[in-house]
Write a structure and sequence with these properties.
three-stranded antiparallel β-sheet; alpha+beta; single chain; four-stranded antiparallel β-sheet
């Protein structure tokens, strides 16, 4: 309860919409309404996880800890204990279905398979982020290979982000743009009805 209330006052999304079945694309802003970091947030086992590039995680942690001292919450970095891989392509949903024995989630929703977390990325192309420990992801990758998956560079994933106009704030672009400048409302990453949060008056 404390973590949900704390995040409700810090993030651009409405925490009431973050459930065990549905994650959310969101951001944390400074008092000037500039985005410190963007991330996907999801709930599992009563803990909230913010999924973002590893270089941005310490920046976001430091920003949130400025306010955390007034709440009974803990903000911890879980990498490298948890890492992620992306799965993209016309047969990606089918491959995950065969590998995991579950129906892959639809856009902005999530599903869990043992310790594995699967999130559907917004956009017209089927893309999924799979997060788990390294051994679990190695096992998943070996299964995916049997369904003709091939490795690709991170630049391919970034190209799909561009096609979907999905902006991820990195350290060099932290605190430079407002949520509107990076189309966060178009990806339902901003709630205009939830009430106050840091930077809300500017946003």
């Amino acid at each position: 309860i404390d973590s949900k209330k704390f995040l409700q006052g810090q993030l651009t999304c409405d925490m009431e919409s973050v459930t065990q079945q549905r994650g959310h694309f969101a951001a944390h802003c400074n008092r000037q309404g500039q985005v410190i970091a963007t991330f996907d947030i999801y709930l599992r086992d009563e803990a909230y996880y913010l999924h973002l590039p590893s270089l941005s995680a310490p920046i976001l942690q430091k920003a949130l800890q400025q306010y955390a001292k007034f709440s009974k919450v803990a903000i911890e970095l879980v990498s490298p204990d948890l890492i992620s891989i992306g799965v993209v392509g016309t047969d990606s949903a089918k491959a995950l279905r065969l590998c995991l024995g579950l129906e892959p989630p639809i856009e902005q929703q999530q599903s869990f398979h043992e310790e594995l977390y699967v999130h559907r990325v917004p956009g017209d192309v089927e893309r999924f982020v799979c997060t788990a420990s390294a051994p679990a992801l190695i096992n998943l990758w070996q299964e995916l290979i049997t369904h003709k998956a091939v490795p690709c560079s991170e630049s391919v994933w970034h190209w799909y982000d561009i096609q979907a106009f999905l902006v991820h704030i990195r350290p060099k672009t932290s605190a430079l743009y407002t949520p509107h400048a990076i189309a966060l409302p178009e990806h339902h990453g901003v709630s205009f009805t939830k009430g106050c949060y840091t930077g809300q008056e500017i946003v």
